Fold these 2 entries.
Entry 1:
Amino acid sequence: MSASLPAMAAAPAVSVPEDPADPLAALLARIRACRVCVEQPRRAPLPHEPRPVLRVGSGTGGGARILLASQAPGTKVHLSGLPFTDASGDRLRAWLGVDAPTFYDATRIAIAPMGFCFPGQDAKGGDLPPRPECAATWHDQLFAALPAFDLVLVIGAAAQNYHLRRLGLERFLRLNLTERMLRWREIFDARQGPRLLPLPHPSWRNTGWLKRHPWFESELLPVLRAEVAAALR
Ligand code: SF4
């Protein structure tokens, strides 16, 4: 885990009063109290207590110009309550060229996975995909309440499928993840704003993919770092 990770307050308990003056804060409170995957699951219920993990601002609309759209928490993130408090996070912060305080400043970078809670693991110990209940319940409301962002960095197939559709880039949905990555510049240039940049997951499981595609480091990462720096300014 990276040094200097900020502490995160525990998620609130179930009963949450709504604040009509701050609809985003009220929505975030409802998300943090969510038990849909336990009480109304579409398939086997979540095998543990929900712990939604997302980082978006509230009150003034957040202020973040960058959205990091990811997949779902893993075991370490489920325990920490902070996104990317693992080796994937270290690699992701290196890709972005940001330190941990900047990464976890929700007024500068919003982080919203497709499944807010850790979905559990399969029989081989691999993380399950994001719970489909989450996007069906929350994501349209959340992104309607958040600002448009300048830069939408989208990690993994599930998040890409959602945000390509949300941003009117359906023509790229038929491509698989590697095909999308190979056409990253075309996808990035397809909109003036918010601009979408697809990314592979920074997990160690993708180290082989990264080695087979050296252009990711030599061509995409310099653009990514420059765009992140510009959005943070
Ligand atoms: S994954 Fe999403 S829908 Fe399921 S319990 Fe967590 S917040 Fe609710």
Entry 2:
Amino acid sequence: MGITLIKISAVYFAVGVVLGYYMSVVHDYALTPVHAHINLLGWTSLTLAGILYHLFPALAQSLTGKIHFWLHNIGLPIMMIGLFFVILFKNEALLPLVATGATVTSLGIFSFVFNVLKNLKAS
Ligand code: HEM
């Protein structure tokens, strides 16, 4: 699971950097919130979680680890795609989608935090 998360995070890294590069070239920074969250919740957070799951298999094997894996990977794309279109079309009709994605992602992260506090032990 750790290695899979690191591979997924590398894809987020590429998407986030492409978005940053695009904003720099066209001098339009409206999509900065999408860029920042793809890089921080997609690239850095998932890489760190992946490294922890790889270093401490007990974290990856626990139910809370699996819950984190799925909620983070389902919620974040929903939130990012929703936010992308809210900003692009200047239309708030998709805000409930953003809120749903954000809620799912947050629940996944709470599961991750619970897992680390409960199951991370020095070997
Ligand atoms: C080649 C890579 C990157 C490019 C070209 C790039 C480009 C940009 C641009 C154009 C902005 C908007 C600046 C503005 O609104 O004035 C921005 C904001 C931001 N970027 Fe990147 N970025 C890159 C990589 C990253 C990475 C790797 C991260 C985090 C891991 C990151 C995190 C952020 C954050 C948090 C902001 C918001 C800053 C703020 O609003 O104060 N960026 N980036």
